[in-house]
Design the sequence.
């Protein structure tokens, strides 16, 4: 009669914990630092799993790094179709905030008539084409938002020109709130 000998190995046979293997992983069995970035799936880490304060601003997405850069709450208006500069701001590209790639803009606009369009246009330096146009036909202040790119600008001081106009010669365009967030 042959004897059956069972040998117990100190190490289990290799396996990959895939669905086909069906071998569970016990958390206590994972050594600290054993899971590397290469082993994590792209969607493996979720917001719920990140501790408060664990992500620094440098590691945050561009949207989270936005900072209020400039703002104004002075009501201005223009009657007619001629674009008129009513507000102006300076900013530094590659200054203390680093490189500014874009600006997110929030502005409240209204028109004196619902049949006329009030437009706020944003230009940089001596440009003749607006980087952003915000418009409304609302006769009550309406919040308008948009982005414009400035990553193509050279280092140094630049001027943002804010111009307002109506599309109708006898109607008036109004702006009250204007905020720029640097990204």
Sequence:
């Amino acid at each position: 009669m042959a004897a059956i000998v069972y040998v117990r190995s100190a190490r289990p046979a290799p396996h990959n914990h895939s669905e086909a293997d069906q071998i569970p992983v016990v958390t206590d069995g994972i050594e600290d630092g054993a899971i590397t970035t290469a082993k994590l799936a792209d969607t493996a880490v979720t917001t719920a799993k990140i501790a408060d304060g664990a992500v620094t601003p440098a590691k945050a997405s561009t949207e989270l790094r936005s900072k209020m850069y400039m703002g104004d709450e002075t009501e201005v208006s223009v009657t007619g179709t001629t674009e008129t500069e009513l507000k102006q701001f300076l900013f530094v590209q590659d200054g203390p905030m680093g490189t500014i790639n874009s600006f997110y803009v929030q502005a409240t606009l209204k028109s004196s008539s619902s049949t006329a369009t009030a437009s706020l246009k944003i230009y940089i330096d001596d440009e003749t084409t607006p980087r952003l146009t915000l418009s409304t036909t609302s006769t009550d202040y309406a919040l308008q938002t948009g982005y414009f790119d400035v990553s193509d600008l050279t280092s140094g001081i630049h001027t943002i020109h804010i111009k307002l106009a109506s599309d109708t010669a006898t109607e008036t365009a109004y702006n009250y709130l204007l905020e720029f967030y640097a990204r």
